[in-house]
Specification:
Elements: H1 2-11, H2 14-41, H3 43-46
């Protein structure tokens, strides 16, 4: 199964690239959202 996927990656790398970029951007967005919420809501940081 992995050998078949490896062959497909050579022919059509976008099949795995676009979902990987989408996952990366989603994780980045949640991290930035969490940092922003922490900065806004944590009273220890404001001092």
């Amino acid at each position: 199964m992995l050998n078949e996927a490896r062959a497909d990656m050579v022919i059509a790398p976008h099949v795995a690239l676009f979902p990987a970029v989408a996952i990366f951007l989603t994780v980045l967005a949640f991290n930035l959202l969490g940092d922003g919420l922490r900065d806004a809501l944590d009273p220890k940081i404001k001092g």
